[in-house]
Amino acid sequence: MSTELSFLFVVGFMAIHLFSRHVHSLRRNPRSQFLSIAGGISVAYVFLHLLPELGDFQRELEGEGVLSYLEHHIYLIALIGLVLFYGLEQFVKKSHKHREHQSSISHHAGVFWVHIGTFALYNFSIGYLLVREEFTDSLGPWAFFIALGVHFITNDISLDEQHDRDYAKYGRWLLTASIFIGWITGVLTELHPFIVSYLVALLAGGIILNVMKEELPEERESSFPAFLGGVVAYTVILLLI
C-alpha cells in the first residue's frame, strides 16, 4: 500500500476512535443491526484474508533456523490471540462485579489500563500493517480499511460501555495514538516477517473473539440476519477482488 493512501486510512481510523462514541443510535437494545453487519464483515475478512495470509507466512518462513519449529504453529498464535482476549474480557467482567461489592478505585484503574493497553498493542499492529501489508490489487487496501474500520466502531462502543469516563478521557486518545505510532513505525522501519506473521495471527484471533463476544450474549439481542448479511456480502466482495 502506498504511504499516501495508508496515511489517509490511518487518519480515518483515528477519526473513528475519536468520534464513534458520539453516535448514540448504536447504543441500544436490541443491538443495532449496523453493529451485527459490522461483525459479519470483520469475520468474513478474517477467514477469507487474514487466515489464508498466515499460510503464506508459514511458507515464506521455512528454514529460519531456531524459528523453524514455531513457524509451523502460526495458527496456534491465532488461537492464543483469541484466548488472550477472552481471558481479558473475563478479567474485566469480574472486576466490575468486584467493584459493585466494594469500591476500589485503584483496582479498577489497573484493570482499565491493562484492558486499554492490550487494545493499544492491537491497534499498533493494525497501524503497522497499514503500511507493510501487501495487496494483490488496488481494491485490497479498501477491503482492509472497511473491515477494520467497522470493527473499530464495534470495539469502541464496547470499550466505552465498559469504562465510560475513563475511556472518554484516556482510552480513545491512547488508541488513536497507538494506531498512528504503528503507522509511523511501518513508514520508518520494516519488522522481521516472523514478527509480522505473529502480529497478523494475534490480530486474527482477537478479531474473532471480539466479534463473537458482542454477537453471542443473549442480552445483546443481536440480529442473526444482519450478521449473516454482513458475512455473505463481504464474502462476495472479497472473492471478486
Automatic annotation (TrEMBL):
Residues annotated as transmembrane = 6-23, 35-52, 72-88, 109-130, 142-159, 171-189, 195-212, 224-240
Which species does the entry assign this protein to?
A: Tetzosporium hominis
Keywords in alphabetical order, please: Membrane, Transmembrane, Transmembrane helix
The protein's name is ZIP family metal transporter
> Which domain of life does the protein's organism represent?
Bacteria
* Signal peptide residues on this chain, from the entry's feature table: none
Q: Does the keyword Lipid biosynthesis apply?
A: no
Q: Does the keyword Phosphoprotein apply?
A: no
